[in-house]
Amino acid sequence: MKKRTFDQEYKIQAVDLCLEGDKSIAQVAKELGLAYNCDR
């Protein structure tokens, strides 16, 4: 499996979704196609 890389802007937006939204980290991770434990 190829390792995916994400730029700094993508990471900031993902964190903002978790902090400012009404969704859980698991929900945001699922929407972004990430494993739950990758968001930490």
UniProtKB/TrEMBL annotation:
InterPro entries on file: Homeodomain-like_sf, Transposase_8
Pfam families: HTH_Tnp_1
Protein name: Transposase
